[in-house]
Amino acid sequence: MRERDRKLLNVTPTSIALASYAVDGVYEPARVSCGSLAALWSIAAENDQDVDDELTQAQRKLRELKARISGQSKKNFLLERDVRYLDSRIALLIQNRMALDEQAEVATHLEEMEGGGEGTFPDDRKRQIYGNLFFLLQSEPRHIGTLTRLVSLSEIDTLLQTVMFTIYGNQYESREEYLLLSMFQNVLAAQFELSTEFGSLLRANTPVSRMMTTYTRRGPGQTYLKNVLSERINNLLEHQDLDLEINPLKVYEQMIVDIELETGAPCQLPRGITQEQASAHADVQAIIGPRLTTLMEIAGNFLSTIIASLDQVPYGIRWICKQIRSLTKRKYPNANDANICSLIGGFFMLRFVNPAIVTPQAYMLVEGNPSRNPRRALTLVAKMLQNLANKSTFSKEPYMAALNVFVETNKDRINTFLNDLCEVGDFYEALEMDQYVALSKKEIQLNISLNEIYSTHSLLLQHMDVLAPSDKHHLKICLNDLGPAPAQVPRHENKTINLALFSRWETPITDVPSAIADSQLTQADILYMDTKALFVQILRTMPSLANTSTNGREPQSLQLTAIAEAAATARDPSVVKRGLKLRGMLAQMSAMQAQAEQDRLMVEEVTQELVHLGNLRTKVNQEIASLEQVFKAILDHNNYLRSQLESYKEYLQNVRIQSGLVTSKSGARGRGQQAQGPYKFSHAALEKEGIVVESNVPENRRKDIYFTITSPMPGTFVISLNFKRREKPILEMDLKLDDLLEKQQMGAANLDLEYVQLSVVKVLALLNKTFLIKGKA
């Protein structure tokens, strides 16, 4: 630590009161230690709009990029929720389990997908009260923490949307991040307090587990996954022919398929055998043996990559791991290290890393959907990593028991890594300073939709007796002033507004330097800090002054007086103003302290600061390049989600017509009760349309393969795979439309017909085009 900073940081152990915060309706001083004041002064002194060097421009670009990522992440979250909603509603419609009055609601939901835009709030008075309410919620996260434990599972997604992407939506801003983590501490502590069994901790599908999963989907988590896993996963996807299936029954069935494709005749091996019989088959064992070795090698490489990424893991995720370890030790003092690590691994692997390995396309780590073999390999790798992190065996899938050696070999490595994840400092002192700076800002704004405001208002009212039992509680005062919560507005009216946040109980701090001056820092300390900051500003604005003042010597020989004089006589009026001010400040310092000593310290610190800023510029540019890739991937995912919604509009309309639920243009209700088909398609035609995404049929036999599709009744289809010289189909598959929709909902990209893989999305489009539209005509 530099000598001058050491002095500043040790001015006094006493804290100074900077603002008043209210806790449960009672005023309580919020304090910032003098240890934070040097950094706080630097922030205040360097906040100068006239500095516009390359670093400032890069920092501005980075801030704008982070803001776009935060905003787009929220849009994707909303679209994903809409997709999940429509998946379930369309499935109900297909199964004739949706009431007639619900159909119009679903159609309206689809029609309103393009809501948003800037809006206005109808009542200025309520707008101010809402601004006070949301400042209270943001700055005192215990309220939200309690609320998340009180809401139902059906309400949690809406609340999480508002919390993760609006109230704390600036995902790269330290104050909002630290406040959000404070909320997690509240929620996790309550979860541990209420737990009755160690084995059930953090594993059930609860609002808390949903919160933790949603948190990992924020920008920093997505950046980590892309930087760490993307290359490893893409390398595996390049080996499309690498079949690593180790389930003996599936291996045996594939043997039969391979034999029939090779010979063109039915295989003589017995069918319908048990798992145990398949495991005992010599040829199956010969196939599986080398695959086990390859799988353990691949999983080991993934594990090494993850362990090496320790320093890249976002601070918030590591801090949550730290809380899990700390709470476990307090709640279960007899728990051993392996049990504690299993809980940490349950969060880090189960809810963060493994979902990205299993479905990399959903996390924007790859382009397109993985083909069958790599997809299965990724699933097996994820299972191995999960069992390693959970310290469990493969009892539910006996065929994977041979992989227990991987768990035994690597358990010490994973335990060390999971413990190392927890080794991060706390943020409480930094949060104090951030809260202080927030109070000094003239405007804190929240970009929030009307329905987010009304929904949060409604939830707070429902649970007000628990959240704010006292009539003097500030939260209750706000809610009483607001009255009943307005109803949700239609989607096309759900505009976003910029809600100004403020506290009616706290006095904003408008003059940071004056507030610091009221502390126990001496006038000489303040003058020194201000002078150093001004030197840095001038040299950032006019770097040539540094070269002029050294006369070709080392930077350590900066001539402070020469820089001040050169700035005072520059052509730029803003630089002249600083130069004149700096000249006067140097004179004041000269009168207070020994000139030679203060010049030596000042030169050293200014030089170090300029070196630091140069390194910082490189780091900022590197971060920009990384985040630009993340932003592109997020935009691509947004486009994919929008295409899904467009497809759903067509599915819904066609299915409703086919089911006789809507009237066609001619006025007749859709009947669709008679069988349709068969319709014939060649292998080449379906391959050209991208419907066949993978084929095990040899190239020289594909011209003899064709498909037929029949619809014996609405919503039911029979897909047959035929060989020209065989009377009967090679195979037939009965399929319901809702089966396909369910596969799509579960993230299954392909439909497995043994010999070929068909695209789920494109099969749906083909069925719509071939049957529903023709039936409608």
Secondary structure elements and their pairing?
Elements: H1 3-9, E1 15-23, E2 26-33, H2 37-45, H3 54-94, H4 100-111, H5 124-139, H6 142-150, H7 153-167, H8 174-194, H9 207-216, H10 219-237, H11 248-263, H12 275-280, H13 282-308, H14 315-331, H15 337-358, H16 372-390, H17 404-421, H18 428-440, E3 444-449, H19 450-462, H20 464-467, H21 474-482, E4 496-501, H22 512-517, H23 523-541, H24 544-550, H25 560-568, H26 573-592, H27 595-658, E5 676-682, H28 683-688, E6 692-695, E7 705-713, E8 716-723, E9 731-736, H29 737-745, E10 750-752, E11 756-759, H30 760-776
Antiparallel strand pairs: 1-2, 3-4, 5-7, 6-11, 7-8, 8-9, 10-11
Helix pairs in contact: 2-23, 3-7, 3-27, 3-29, 5-21, 6-8, 7-9, 8-14, 8-18, 10-15, 11-13, 13-16, 13-17, 14-15, 15-16, 15-17, 16-17, 23-26, 23-27, 24-25, 25-26, 27-30, 29-30
GO cellular component, one term: cell cortex
Organism: Caulochytrium protostelioides
InterPro entries: RasGAP_C, RasGAP_dom, Rho_GTPase_activation_prot
